[in-house]
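In line with agreed milestones, work has continued on tokenised descriptions of protein folds. One protein thus recorded appears below exactly as we store it:

>
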Amino acid sequence: MPARSPLREEPPTDALIDALKTLRADDSAPVYIQIERCIRMGVADGTFQPGDHLPSVRDLARQLGLSPNTVGRAYADLSREGVITARAGGGSEITARERLDQPGLLRTRMERLRVLARQTAVRGLALGLEPDEIAEAVRVELAAHGRPVSGKAVQSTLGAQEPPLLSARNRLRGTVSSIRAGELLAEVTIELREGAEVIAAVTRTSVDRLGLQTGGRVSIYVKATELTLGP
């Protein structure tokens, strides 16, 4: 575990409270997502170090004037991703880096990363940006946090026998019932069986690459680690 900086001017708990007090009412993301984002960014930029204690759910909720359920949801998501862990005697702390190398936990984190990458790609394309511009924006952000892209090839986090098992378990089959395509994005409605359908938002390029057409058969691979419902 890296040594903590002797120049830290305030306890990590105080830094977290100060950071979370900037939660924005005009942010379209739910408050629990803003809390998760703040803690992740604090870990990424070194504000929070492995082993740093976090306020309890009730204490943080009280200081921020939020419902304990809201804070609890954020902590639960971060715990599932391995960003924080429960500590003996109660409360939570930033996870030690060596624990993040556990294969199962690493797969969960990589799956979450793929979901975020997919969202970034789709939203960037929807803004009319070119793929190189989107990738460059990500590279700039990583460099700004002191973690520039190395250019080295990344090895798969799955074992040799796992992709086929995951594919078979998470695959749905259906028939394309309609396609609504714009210049960059497309909405594909897929009928799984009578009375059951899913709607997938994909890029126009994916529609062309996969040769999707009304009445055609298609497979759906479920990879998302969370679902967000709205009114």
Summary: Residues 103-126 form the longest helix (24 residues). The mean pLDDT is 77.
